[in-house]
Amino acid sequence: MPLHEGNRAYESDGSLLQNPSLNSDIPEILAETIFRYTAYPSVPQIEAVVEALLKKHPCLREPATSFSGTYGWQQRLKWKMANYRSKMRRRGVPCPELDINSLKRKSPSERNPAKNCKRAKKAEVNYLPPHPSGETNDTLEMERQELLSEVKKKNNTRVIQEKMAKTFYRRLEVVSGSPGADDFKERWPAFFCEAEVKEEFRRITTVSLEQRFMFKLDHYTPKLTALMKAKGGVMGTKLRPFLDKLSQSQRLEMRREAVIRSLIVYLGEKEEELLEDCLEDSRSDATQHVLKILVVHGADGEEPVDVSILLEGQEMMSGRGSTAKACMLLMGLIYGLNLAYPPKLRYTFEVFQKLFLELDVIKMSPKVQALKLKLLS
Q1: Which of 15, 27, 136, 237 is the residue whose CA sits 20 to 30 A from 129?
Q2: Closest CA to 358 of 122, 149, 161, 142
Q3: What is the 3-state secondary structure (H, E, C) of 18-51?
Q4: How many CA atoms lie within 13 A of 31 on its CB side?
Q5: Residues 6+ apart with CB under 8 A from 120
Q6: Rounded-to-integer distance, Cα 42 and Cα 116, Å
Q7: Quick one: 108 exposed, middle or buried, by C-beta within 10 A (0-12, 13-18, 19+)?
Q8: Tens digits of per-residue pLDDT, 201-247?
Q9: Strands of 275-279's sheet in order across
C-alpha cells in the first residue's frame, strides 16, 4: 500500500509521499464519509478531519512552508465536498440539507451556491433530518393537527411525546421559514413545555440538556469561584456582591444563580442584558424584550417566585422557579427555534454551549479558550 510504504519512509528519513493521484482519491473518500454525517461541514470540522488524516499518515504532509502542511489538504477537501454535493444533487439523492440550499429555492438575487447556505452552526447533529420512512408532508400535517387536539387534554404526556417525536419534520419549517416565536408557538404549542424543550434539544444534538448543563455548571463552580475571588480592581468590586451571595447561600439553586450572574460579569458582559429582576406586582412589559429572562421576586425581594423566558416580545415559558434552569431551557429554545445568540452576550452563550454543554469545542474565541484553560489548570 502506498500510504504504508510512505509512512515507513517518513519515519526513516522524513521524506514526504509524492503521489498526485492520492491528492484526488483521498479527499473523495473523505467527502463520501463526511456526507453521511453532514453535507456542509464547518471549517473547524474540516480542519479536524485533516489533522486526523495527517496524524495517521504523516507522509501526506506538505512542505512546512505550506501552512504547516495542512492548508492544501483543507482546500482540497473543501472543494471536494462542494463537488460531492453537486454530484449527489444530480443523482437525486434525498437530503433535506441539499434540497433547502438548491438554487431553485433561492431568490434570483441570491442564486449563488455559496450564498446564504442554511447549515448547522452550533454543533447540531440532526440539523435538518429527513421525513420518517413512509411519511409524507400530508400525513405529517395530519399528525400536527391531531397534536393540537391532544395538547388540550389532561394527563396526555405519553401521546404528546410520541407525536412530537414523529413530527420532527418541523425542523424544515424552522430552518427554511425562520418563523417568529409566537407564530411557531401557535402551530406547535406542545413544544413550549420543559419536557419537550429538553427532548427536542436531545433530538437535535443527541445531548441531555439538563443533565449536561447542570453537571458542568456545578463541576466548574469551585474553580470559577476561585478565579473570581482573585479578581481585583473594578472587576473585583463588581463581582463582590455575587460572591457574597454565593458564600452565604446554602440552597443549590441560589448558588447556581449567583455563579451564572457573576460569570456574565467576569466575561465583561452585562447581566441585565440577559436577566431582569422585578417584584411580583411590577412585572416588566414583555413586548419590550427580544430575548430576556424575567426573574420575579416576592415582597421580600429574595428568592424568585417565578422565572419567565421572553422571546420576541412574547412570554414563551413561565413558572420556572430557578434562574439556572431558565438559562438551560433558553439554550433549548435557541436550538429548537434555530435562533442566533444575542451579540451583547456572545461570550456568555459561548460558555453555555462550549463549556457547559460541550458542543462544538473544536474552536473557541480567545476569551473562552483562556477561561477553559484556567478551569482545567
Answers
A1: 27
A2: 122
A3: CCHHHHHHHHHHHHHHHHCCCCCCCHHHHHHHHH
A4: 22
A5: 38, 40, 42, 127
A6: 14
A7: exposed
A8: 999 999 999 999 999 999 999 999 999 999 999 999 999 999 998 88
A9: 275-279, 291-297, 304-311, 314-317
Contact, 308 vs 291, CB < 8 A? Answer: no
Task: Say how many C-beta atoms besides its own lie within 10 A of residue 49's C-beta.
Answer: 19
For the beta carbon of residue 72, count every other beta carbon within 10 angstroms.
Answer: 16
CB-side exposure of 49: number of CA atoms within 13 Å? Answer: 23
H helix or E strand, kind and range, residue 258: helix 252-266
Instruction: Report residue 215 as a C-alpha cell.
Output: 453537571
Are 20 and 73 in contact by the 8 Å Cβ rule? The answer is no
By the 8 A CB rule, do 200 and 336 touch?
A: yes
Grid coordinates given for 357: 454543554
CA-wise closest residue to 147 among 160, 135, 157, 138: 160
Give, for 150, the enclosing helix (H) or strand (E).
Answer: helix 137-150
List the one residue out of 250, 263, 251 whose CA is nearest residue 221.
263
210's CB contacts (< 8 A; 6+ apart) are 198, 325, 328
Look up the pTM and report it.
0.84
Residue type, 118: K
Q: What is the pLDDT of residue 69?
A: 62
Residue that has been written with the C-alpha cell 423566558 in this structure: 309
Q: What angle do CA 368, 370, 372 make, to 5 degrees?
A: 70
* 3-class secondary structure, 349: helix
Model pLDDT for residues 68-113, shown as the tens digit of each residue:
567 888 999 999 998 988 888 888 877 878 778 775 555 555 556 5
Which residues, 6+ apart, have CB-to-CB distance to 252 below 8 Å? Answer: 218
Length of the chain: 377
338-369 burial, b if ≥16 CB within 10 A, otherwise e?
bbebbeebbbbbbbbbbbbbebbeeebeeebe
With cell 438554487, the residue in question is 103
